Amino acid sequence: MTKRFFANVWKRSSHLPGGTDLLRYVANKANHIVLKARQQTKVAHPSTVMLELSAQCNLKCTICPREYGYGEEMDMGLMEEAQAKKVIDELVPYVDSIGLTGMGETLMYKKIDKIVDYIKAKNKGIVISISTNAVLPRTIEKVAALVGKLDTIQVSIDGIGEVYDAIRVQSDFTLFKNNVREIADLCRNSSTTVMLNMVVTRENFFHLTEVVQFAEEMGIGYVNYTIFNLACISGTDISYYDFYQSETFKSEVNRLKAYNTKVETTWSGLGNEKGFQTCGLPWGHFYVCWNGEMAPCCAKPFPKELSFGNVFNEGLMPVLNSAGFQDFRQKWLKNETPDFCKKCHYIDCKKIDI
After folding, report:
1. How far is Cα of residue 287 from the mean position of the Cα atoms in its chain?
2. For 132, which DSSP code?
3. Cα separation of 134 and 156, whole Å?
4. β-strand 193-200 against 222-227: which pairing, if any?
5. What is the value of pTM for the model shown?
């Protein structure tokens, strides 16, 4: 757990809902514990949600699910401001954190400042994060308006120099580097933390340490590494994951570990060998697509393949506890992997020793 994690916990605990909302908040936490203990397939009001404000993007990255199979077929658009606020109204006072991000570039959402302000007006302790590729025109201007309001700005980086350019198609590393430097400078000495995120692939894993060095140069204190997800990449065999077990990859991990730095590094999706039950997303981390559809998870948010309902039309909790979603969780309890989840790194990737 990083300093950023504890800072967010402290912030939230320092700004809990007041009055009767506090009673509702505490009762919901208790309900969550009871439902979990009894292995019920229903869930309490969520404590964390991702709202896909934008499903549009200015890049065509080779590691992005939208560039393959189901992703190519998905509808792309922007969440209406009124609908976003409607979902937020349903989340409060129970929610602890909201991620305003998804398959698209978040800063393409022109009214993001209004959504952030709306959340803060509900409760200034709600932790808000976004993800950005940092190369959209007017990126710096857009970020400047959000500094001190957002808790985390996650910046996507998948290598340095030519490696970055080869993966993040239609981007430019020089522009990216200059923008990241300005973003870091804007957020320094504010309550907004900048974190780099690298999707670790066979094409870039030899830059694990270099990304930390880049973070040092920019004055950024956090780097997260995410395992590549094949669940939504059509035509790629599960053997792709084998490189994570190679001596070459382990050597690069050891080089990273040996590197003396103050940058805090974390890993997402390391996996183990327990199957579907490795994943906790069906229970506590929910994803609302830009058009209101609720796909199973943020790793594969393709409602045309599977959706549990439309939050805009049916309401948040009716969708979360719909028959389809409960059946999905029943499979989790039985450790029966749904077809939707096959080839996911949480399930089919062997445990990676970091």
Report:
1. 9
2. E
3. 8
4. parallel
5. 0.95
